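Quick question: what would this complex look like in 3D?
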Amino acid sequence: MATKVLTDQPSIANTFLAELRDSSIQSDSMRFRTNLARLGGLIGYEISKTLNFKEVETETPLGISKSHLISDKIVIASILRAGIPMHNGLLDVFDRAENAFISAQRKMHKTGSFDIELNKVTSPSIEGKILILCDPMLATGASLNLALQALESYGKPSAIHICTAIASRTGMEHVQRLHPDANIWIGDLDEELTAKSYIVPGLGDAGDLAFGPKI
Ligand code: URA
């Protein structure tokens, strides 16, 4: 399936991404969340072009107009907690979508390495529906892979769309390899990944910037 990097064709997405990355702006957490949501909305618009539509008649005050409405059922899923702002942006666009949430966290080892642990999944059936999964930072792809595996028990979606603000090349290629059937929407692509799996230049910790530090 397709992978699309929004910044390959400059647009307003570049402004949102530049503000997300800018350390002098990202300390404004409301603007940070808003920019993630706006990016989610732009990606939602791009996804909408791939969906199925049905023709309906709409009555205007002056006559009948033929309209085309999305006929697919959509489930928006996000990995907590960083996925929430993009999730909101997508939900503004697909306002009738159902919702799924996956709680994941890093379980650190003494060596400094870590595994991703899934704690809880809440989802409706995704059988035959469009699954949109958001995680703003695609670092290694491990959380996305675990989330997609966990969602398998909720049915087989008709299409999978992964939404991310910034991806590392390694993470993108890992997800492409493991999920060749998924469409991947990336705001911007970075080349470097640190030993602790932070994307460079990236933007830092998206969850902390959106919602404050954790212990
Ligand atoms: N998660 C983040 O929030 N930032 C990264 O750089 C990688 C994973």
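Answer marked as accepted. The helical segments are 12-21, 29-48, 84-93, 142-151, 169-178, 206-211.
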